[in-house]
């Protein structure tokens, strides 16, 4: 069987969509169903990045709920921040947030971003994401699962 034929036979493989969660916050642009995200790794171990990658990969497909990762903060409605904020990443985090047009929201992903996890007293650590920028949505977990990430994003996109 050709690979094209195999694609046709297998079809689309994606985790089932559960019921839409309660709205956590109004969409920043006032437009429901769409949320453009600029991700900043503030000092994570990359565990959260792996789960974000899974959330946007074909198996979980966060884009079907209107969330999309974008390369430029100028194109974003929201900031997706992972990890504790290190001294080196404090200013880049602030710069990125400033470059996102208002109204905008900040989503902290993972225990490090939300509460500092086990790195709170690290010599290179400034604090949590909330210590540096105002956080609107928190996604706890070390790391949070793709499903948890998608549920939180859906609570903003409304889909
Ligand atoms: S929350 Fe866990 S997985 Fe995410 S950056 Fe921190 S230690 Fe890594």
Explain this structure to me?
It is a single chain. The chain is of the alpha/beta class and 159 residues long. The protein has a single domain, classed as Rossmann fold. 33% of the residues lie in helices and 18% in strands. It has six helices and seven strands. It has helices spanning 3-10, 47-56, 87-99, 111-115, 129-132, 146-157, and strands at 35-41, 67-69, 78-82, 85-86, 105-109, 125-127, 137-139. The strands form two sheets. A five-stranded parallel β-sheet has the order 2-1-3-5-7. A two-stranded antiparallel sheet has the order 4-6. The longest helix is centred in the middle third of the chain and has 13 residues, at 87-99. The termini are far apart. The mean pLDDT is 94. The structure holds iron/sulfur cluster.
């Amino acid at each position: 069987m050709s690979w094209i034929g195999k694609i046709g036979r297998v079809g689309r493989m994606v985790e089932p969509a559960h019921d839409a969660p309660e709205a956590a916050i109004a969409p920043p642009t006032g437009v429901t169903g769409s949320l453009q995200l600029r991700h900043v790794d503030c000092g994570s171990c990359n565990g959260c990045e792996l789960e974000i990658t899974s959330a946007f990969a074909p198996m979980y497909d966060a884009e079907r709920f209107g969330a999309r990762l974008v390369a430029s903060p100028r194109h974003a409605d929201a900031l997706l921040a992972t990890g504790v904020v290190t001294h080196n990443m404090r200013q880049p985090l602030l710069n990125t947030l400033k470059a996102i047009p208002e109204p905008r929201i900040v989503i902290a992903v993972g225990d490090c971003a939300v509460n500092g996890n086990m790195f709170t007293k690290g010599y290179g650590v400034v604090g949590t994401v909330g210590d540096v920028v105002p956080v609107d949505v928190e996604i706890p977990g070390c790391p949070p699962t793709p499903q948890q990430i998608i549920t939180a994003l859906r609570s903003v996109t409304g889909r």
